[in-house]
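Q:
Got a chain?
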Amino acid sequence: MSGSRNGGLFCTIGKPKEYGEGENRENGGIVMTIEDRQKTLAWHETLEVHELTAFQSIGLMKLKMSYRKVTDAELKTIYQRAIQDLELNLRELMPYYANAPRQEGEEEERNMELGFYAGDLLGLMKTSVRNYGIAITETATPVLRRTLTNHLMRAIQGHERIYQYMYKRGLYPSYDLDKLLRNDLSLAQRALAMKY
């Protein structure tokens, strides 16, 4: 297996092979087989893995911070199971990062506590936008539809504000996929390492 530069991206590919008549030429003269393509995540898969990892890492951190405050034994057991499930989910998602398309670059540190709080608010705003969008499609009463539409617009504006804040501070490098994925792994590792 070898690596090849393709449009500034590092792609994992198999051995070069000779072109047959009518074969598709890709990656500067190297044909990627179906098997090779399946070793590298597609862009859309990578972004879904990113969203799931970031969301669950923040959720896991919140659960671990809240665990000691829960006094009801049954609820504490439910929390413990949720923590274990999220830890398992993150452990299962993290290996996929090795197969993500990447740009080569230097790793940078970030303020994890600030990133946690900002990421939590970003997750809330994203979820609010989705929930209001769904709720509006279920609304038959015009005045309620207008109210929910106003709420949706405020959620969209709130999302823009926190996204811009995070982007300016390098906490959500949305145009640098490699850095975005490194940030996810760092956040997931921190969430997994937290005691509860």
